[in-house]
Automatic annotation (TrEMBL):
This is PAN2-PAN3 deadenylation complex catalytic subunit PAN2. It comes from Paraglomus occultum. The keyword Nuclease applies. Its cofactor is a divalent metal cation. Residues 1167-1176 have a biased composition (Low complexity). The gene is PAN2.
Amino acid sequence: MAEWDEIGRIHNSKAILSQSITALAFDPYQELLWTGDDKGRVASFHGTGMHPYTSFRSHESQVRQTLVCDRGVISLSSGRVKMNNRRGLGEWTISNEDTADLHCMTYTVMPNSEILVAGRQPQMLVINVARGTIVKKVDAESEIVVMRKSKLVCCGATTGQVTLRDPKTFKIEHRVQAHTGTISDIDTVGNLLLTCGFSARNGTFIIDPLVKVYDIRTMRPLAPISFPSGPCFLRMHPKLSTTVFIVSHSGQFHVLDVVNTSDIHFYQANTTSYINAIDISSTGEMFAFGDADNFIHLWGDSKEPKMNEFSNPIELMSPHVLPPSVRIGENDSLALVGMPYYKEPLLSVWPSNKIFEVGIPPPKIDQDILSNIKTIDFVGFAPNNTNRRRNEIVKWSRKGHKPGQPKFRSEKEREMHRGRGAGAQEQNRLFDEEERNITGTKMPKYYQQVEIQYSRFGVDDFDFEYYNETQYGGLETHIANSYCNSLLQVLFFTPILREITKVHIGSVCPKENCLCCELGFLFRMLEDAKGSNCQATNFLKAFSKIPQASALSLFEPEEHDETISYAQLIQNFNRFILEQLHQECNTDNNQRLLKHLPLDEKNYSVIQQVFGMQMALVSRCQCQRETERMTIPFVVDLQKNKNVKGNTKGKEPAVRRFEDVLSGSICRETQTKAWCNQCQQYQPSLVKKIPKSLPPVLVINCGLGNAVPSELWRSVVNQKSWLPTRITMDLEGDDLKIETTLEGSDQETSTNGSPCHAKYELTAIITQIEPEKETPHITAFIRIPKKELEPTSKSEWYLFNDFLVKNVNEQEVFNFQGLWKVPVLLYFTRIDIDALVDISALPNEVDHSILFEDTSIAKKSIAPIPKPFQLLSLEETPQPGTLVAIDAEFVALSQEETEIRSDGTKSVIRPSRLSLARVSVLRGEGEKEGIPFIDDYIATSDPVVDYLTEYSGIKAGDLDPATSRHTLVPLKVAYKKLRLLLDLGCVFVGHGLKKDFRIINILVPPEQVIDTVEIFHIKNRQRKISLRFLAWCLLNQDIQTESHDSVEDARTALLLYKKYIQFKAEGIFEEILEEIYKEGKKHNWKPTPGMFPKPPNGPSSATFSLTSVTAHSLSTETYLNNDALSTSMTNKSEDGDRTELSDVVAPVTSQRTTTSPSWRSETAGESKISMPSASKSSHRSEQLMSLPDEERPKYDSSAGTSPLLLPTFD
């Protein structure tokens, strides 16, 4: 017998360290060794050098066996059988209910054509290898874990029995009880059958140290083979029919002759872990082990062993040819990149007989034309409402929007400018009456998941009004964890909770990520929405920072997961948010909101008073000892209970009523193990829930799955929905009675604020919408309080599908006939809640101290910079109408995601996510006009991917408390300051405030916004002018030269607004605005530093003229100490008129004079400049401008700096 030695050992370096090899198989057709690991990956190695050949993911779980055929490799996992070719491409996959728990496979009587697959399941499967289909199913008497085939198919089971089946009919021919435990491995060659496995000893299973040997001709056992190390794997030599390899998990293996057991050869594989798989090559010259450390150990019986006698050549990839190194600079021609040499015709060279002239495809007829067409005989006629001629073909057009989605705002405006009025009056087919299907099972379009589409103008170009024609605000969906939107809407339309959160934001709350504060801010936005869309960005951001929410897995996965249950997610979030609000609102001195309901001496939080149900948990041990403790749950879990007491008189009704199911869910009895002080051990106990009071708002989690069968929700009782609109609950001792109350019936009587008698009205239903072949999503049906109901509402019920809001019929709300709508959460509110709850008990004072305090969380380890702001004094407390200037800067938390379409255009999939980094607010009037009183940098714990320093002025370290030198505050503090200014009635002046307020996540009413980007904009022009150009054009200032500064930008916007007021008063604003557009077009909207146009001061001025001045000489810092100018760059003359800096330096007039002054040009850096009074300067400039163009002094470019032209007069 030849000696065996290790000839190689390889580790799959591309695999993860935690992977381990679970399957091995030599390829009998090519020089390949196939492996499978516990992560479902299949790999192959070439030759004795074990060079990597292919590697691919074939399964989601452990590969349990690999089988090689002439077409490829077949791999098996617990729930899947898959075949790949040798390059890794999939051929077929079988994964269905028949593949429950597979373990092994082998060939049948037809090698390479048919395999038999079995496992710990009731049936074995016969699979056709060519087609990849199950052709036959065979009943298995036991759970089979290993199979081998020689003359018969030998199957080893978990019971220790080996069954021998006919390879054609698969009938059992013989049975052998080899071991008392499960079979580990078997092998058979010729007439020999060898088995190893486990045996039961002293109640446990241990590895049987004997290898059992049987003669399958007579089914008699032969002498067993002793292997003290514990046999786990067996392989018979393919050439020597009586030689066997016996291997243990530790790597020790014996090579011996079954007939002559005295001739034993002992070996030890060099492994630090344990062996998982083995195999021997078809020649018997190579033996391979796979261990748990992802190592492959290759042994051979000679120095140059062969894997197969005759092997087919393997297909190798073509060698990678490096491209020639060609360096191309900015000034080099692209012709340096040569074309590849080729001899054959290119694929683009089509033969002439394959090319045909087909012309331009006929254009699609507009849907509006088809809807208005009239047919006479077989000819259709329709009016031509377009600006094109009849039968005119448009050779190029923009990509149309998808059906059922609105056009972008810019697209509508573009169509209006082109004369297509239909663009402005787009028909909203989403809410067509014909789409309604109130009583049927078909899902209307407005229940589909809505998505925001992005154009090159960003999210502001999306038409949200298309989805919402009501006065109630919707919530946007492009934010992480936006599945919470429906519940946030329900909480908003719970008036008592809305008042609690609004009062909370008016108090001092030091907690940074306070959900009660964020809810209050969100509710204030929704109150001011007036039908506009809102975002829950700040609330969801604070929610994502709470560790308890992460521990409860309340966060939506970043990648799409089909297994996630949004119904379960929203139920868990509902329970979490109520508990979190209770903790944040609970104080040592809680206000008492309930007028009449008697409470004990305990200090209940306002959330407990509104949502909590006092519940006694009575536990009774087998020793009849009872213990009782009080709890206050916020949510009732609805669950069908067969032991519910109802008015059925002992008979099971055909359909159990909702009232009975709810009563049984509240007063539930369960069996559990609990500690008994009397027995001093855990004992089976009966736990019963007994309600002691009824809450003002009753929250119910609808049972999912089998808790409440879906058939109940779809059932109809007495032509009414199974879910009632009103119920009455009565507590009589330990019994709870629930009955349905009809609205307006005689049963409606006053409850007088009784804690044991209450009438409830259903006010909200949260449902999960499950469209076919689409991801489920959450919507809400909300009954709007009558005080807030629209006058034109047809019903009190509204559908809130994120930013889609629609008035719906009550019949549609309670229709659950379709499988696509499933109720998840119910909110019942007491009818007498207004008389029951005393809102006046809540404090109504708002704390404004944060506006007068300088708070910073910067650790000031580095010397801070001088503060560029002065805090407000109490005398400067803003009043309604107070003018303030504002600007904000932002940083990017994620990059924009785009895709390039086939036509070369760029499509925005997801815009970049921005976060507030700095906000500055300046006084807009008074003695300190233009001086900031807020200049806060906002700390962020989220990773910043781009500080946008060129546009924001923010640098790395400015937002870090450890390194920042600025006033650094949390986002909540900065937001609260802006919220207070808004609620105090301040009017905000700024440039491009719509986008700023959107990212800040605050909604400011239009009457409190003065946006200079809209003021200096002609409505029928698409161009909106930048702040930099307006400052250059109107104020003669160069701003934003290197980066942006929010204080500078806010001050500039304020000066522009003052200019606007001046021009309006003089009646020349429209003329000046036209001149600004002309100047912008002439300069391509790019300011020329140091070269300023002078705006006209009179209605007769028609053109701009450039005056050459030194930019530095006009900087703010140069004249801050000049008595003629204030820090706001304005001066009051003796007669009280306000004169701008541009008027002092270069006023413009159309008056002409006959006086001819003499000129001298002095460089600003070489001569001393004194600023004359406004009247003298104006007079001199008038004379300067009266000169003809040819007599005016020209700018000498060789001077080095821009000369300041000083006129001198005789």
